[in-house]
Amino acid sequence: MPELSSMPRPEVTADSGKPVLGAIAITRLRESDYRAVVELFRHLGPKYSCDLNDPRTKSTFDLYLADERKHGLVARLGDRIVGVILYEITPVLSIGFSHGRNDGLAVDPEFRGLGIAKLLLRSVLSHCREVGATTYMVKASNPKVISLYRSMPDLVERGIYFYTI
Question: CB–CB of 59/98 below 8 Å?
Fold first, then answer.
């Protein structure tokens, strides 16, 4: 994986009335990020909210620290985590190839629209390419989120069907 602190950073202005960002650092997920990551996902609504004190929440978070296939990146503005992406890279039966899958992406509402989600996603796609992933799957139903993925020149939509069971 490339040195994350050297990843390109968004140029952000205050034209929209949103905060002006200093340097955004993209770093690997850390044990100490647990509370902030859970809080960020709460902003996505009740389906994505979980109890900080539930051992299942913590054990799932820990998978992104310990499992060699699962990964997490956070966008830091100083000591504050303003974005997170969780993803998995798994091998496919064709030798030497793998598949990436987005497990979750959240940006603090105060910092949305500033390019943080794209910065996180580009970091993930770079990692996927490094390890030979040939596809990257995302699940999205929110029109704004779908628009984000469609705006990424690195991604070519092949179509996906997602069913609730």
Answer: no
Q: 45: alpha, beta or left, given left = phi > 0 and alpha = psi -120 to 50?
A: left
CA angle 6, 133, 151 (to 5 degrees): 65
Give this prediction's pTM: 0.83
Q: 54: which 2 tokens?
A: 């539930």
Q: At CA 117, angle to CA 8 and CA 133, rounded to 5?
A: 80
Strands 25-28 and 70-77: antiparallel
Q: Which residue has the tokens 């390419």?
A: 129
Tell me the domain boundaries of the chain.
25-150
Residue 87 has pLDDT above 90, yes or no: yes
Give residue 43's pLDDT band: very low, low, confident or very high (50, 70, 90). very high
25-150 has which CATH code? 3.40.630.30
Residue 22 has pLDDT above 80, yes or no: no
The percentage of the chain sitting over the pLDDT mark of 90, rounded to a whole number, equals 53
Residue 29: exposure state from Cβ atoms within 10 A (0-12, 13-18, ≥19)? buried
